[in-house]
Structure formats: C-alpha cells, structure tokens
Specification:
Layout lengths: L5 H10 L7 H11 L2 H23 L2 H18 L9 H19 L1 H14 L15 H6 L4 H12 L4 H8 L3 H19 L8
Keywords: Sigma factor, Transcription, Transcription regulation
InterPro entries: RNA_pol_sigma-70-like, RNA_pol_sigma-70_dom, RNA_pol_sigma70_r2, RNA_pol_sigma70_r4_t2, RNA_pol_sigma_r2, RNA_pol_sigma_r3/r4-like, WH-like_DNA-bd_sf
GO molecular function: DNA binding; sigma factor activity
Length: 200
C-alpha cells in the first residue's frame, strides 16, 4: 500500500463516519479497495486511545502526537498483517508501541525524557512525585516503573485492554503480562505507601 502524509490522515479522519460497520469490516474494505475513507474511520475511532497511550508512555504531548501520526502511517502500510484473530485496537496499540521503541532508539530526545522519568522514579517512601496540577495519579504512579512496566500498566489501566490483548500489543506471553502487572502494582504500593485494598 502507498503511504500518504499525516495531514491527509487528519483530513480523512475528520470527514469519516461509519457507525454501523465494525473494525474488521473496515479493515476488509481498506485491504480490498485501498479505501482511504474506511481507514480514516478507523483513525477517527481510535486516535484518542493511541495518543493517550503514547502520551502516558513518553510523558511528552508533542512527541506523542508525532508518534501517533507515524503509528497510523505504519498501520496503513502494515494493515495486511492484521489477521482479525484479536481486536483491531490491540493490534493498533502494538504498532504504536513498536513505533515508540523504534523511534526511541533513533532519537536522543527519548534519552532525555527517560532520564527525567528515571530521576523521578527515585522518589519513594510515600513522597509525591512532583507533577503539575493537571497530571493524574496514574501519571505519578507510572514515574516509579520501568519502561516495560509502564507500557503494560498503561495498556491495562488506561487503555482497558484484557491480558490477552496486552499479549498482542506488547508481544509478551500471558504469564509475563500478569507478572509485569503484579510487579508494577507492588512497586506502586511500596513507593506511595498504598494499602492493598486502595489499589487493585
């Protein structure tokens, strides 16, 4: 498939609308007809979730939005690899996560961001990570986690994916997903002095 620019994705998604068609049907239309309007509808449905995932992962809104555009371009190019065995959003978040990992290896900007996150992760023992007032508790909790733990916890709690969907998105066995979630919750509890019943 040919790839078009990010501006075209935004324009097409704003004009799209197919509430009666499920994701798999839209994917089939894109693959059969290279239907850009059908793909635009997929973008419209899922762009908020993809952006929120990347924003929480990078903690940089501008960078996350750039990555979201790249992720949708990659999704258009790789759509033929979606087999329909899992959910489309699970596959799409896997594309977004892969885009994040690939770009991180190429950009020094990611190193600066992750270094800052690592510095914040040293704060523990019930102390609050310094954040602006509009940052949620989840963002504070994420600061004490490793990159892998952050990704899995975001997919689970912010994106609402099941363990099986996280397996697909993060390319992990289900046992590893469960272990990472358990480890992440334990780390959060210890860092913020949270009782077990306060954070499930």
């Amino acid at each position: 498939m040919a790839i078009w620019g990010a501006e075209s994705i935004i324009e097409i998604s704003e004009k799209s609308g197919a509430p009666g068609i499920d994701d798999n049907e839209l994917v089939a239309k894109v693959l059969a007809q290279q239907d850009s309007a059908a793909f635009g509808e997929l973008v419209r449905r899922h762009q908020s979730q993809v952006r929120n995932f990347l924003r929480k992962l990078t903690r940089d809104f501008v960078l996350a939005d750039d990555l979201a555009q790249d992720a949708f371009l990659h999704a258009w190019d790789k759509l033929h690899t979606f087999r329909g065995q899992g959910t489309f959003i699970g596959w799409l978040l896997k594309v977004a996560y892969t885009t994040f990992l690939q770009s991180k290896r190429k950009s020094s900007r990611y190193s600066e961001i992750l270094e800052e996150v690592g510095h914040n992760a040293e704060v523990g023992g019930g102390q609050q990570v310094q954040q602006s007032e509009d940052v949620s508790n989840l963002d504070k909790f994420l600061a004490v986690l490793t990159e892998e733990e952050r990704a899995v916890m975001i997919l689970s709690y912010a994106c609402g994916l099941s363990h099986r969907e996280i397996c697909e998105a993060a390319n992990m066995p289900i046992g590893t997903v469960k272990s990472v979630i358990f480890r992440g919750k334990e780390k959060i509890r210890e860092s913020f002095d949270i009782e077990d019943h306060q954070y499930g």
